[in-house]
Design brief:
Distance between the termini: 9 Å
CATH architecture: Sandwich
Strand content: over 45%
CATH class: Mainly Beta
Number of strands: 11
Structural class: mainly beta
CATH topology: Jelly Rolls
Helix content: under 10%
Shape: globular
Order of helices and strands: EEEEEEEEEEE
């Protein structure tokens, strides 16, 4: 049975487009991201995308900048997500929209071998409300 090894709040109470820093996940087999809203009113929404990279942040010969465009020298991609809370199919490059008051959505990052994960808040409809993202890492060992 997988056991929780690490939990990180990688975006906390954000109310404008933002990126989390790349979080090292290389030694964990199971990766979950939880996206949540606070004080959303009628019509409020936020769009998130999850990015990943096989680049090891401990390897100084290669780096990744999740805020810059993807390229041969900046290797990241949008992660495939599987909903654990009934959200439905997620198109990685489109992302996830949360829109209900105090909404909480949980997703499994469905890519093996990742070394880093980043959560991007693409947009938020009302900057008087906030959203957060948590990363939970599990392992079988």
């Amino acid at each position: 049975m997988p056991r929780l090894r690490h939990s990180y709040k990688i975006l906390e109470s954000v109310n404008t487009a933002a990126h989390s820093v790349g979080q090292y996940v290389g030694d964990m087999r199971h990766k979950e991201v939880v996206l949540s809203s606070d004080d959303f009113g009628a019509g409020d929404s936020a769009v998130f995308r999850v990015k990943g990279s096989y680049v090891d942040p401990q390897d100084e010969s290669e780096t990744v900048d999740f805020t810059a465009a993807r390229s041969e020298d900046n290797k990241w991609f949008y992660c495939d997500l599987v909903s654990g809370s009934g959200y439905g199919a997620v198109v990685p490059s489109t992302g996830v929209t949360i829109s209900d008051s105090d909404d909480v959505q949980q997703f499994t990052i469905n890519i093996d071998g990742l070394m880093q994960v980043c959560v991007e808040l693409v947009s938020i409809s009302d900057n008087t409300t906030t959203v957060s993202a948590d990363l939970h890492l599990f392992d079988d060992r």
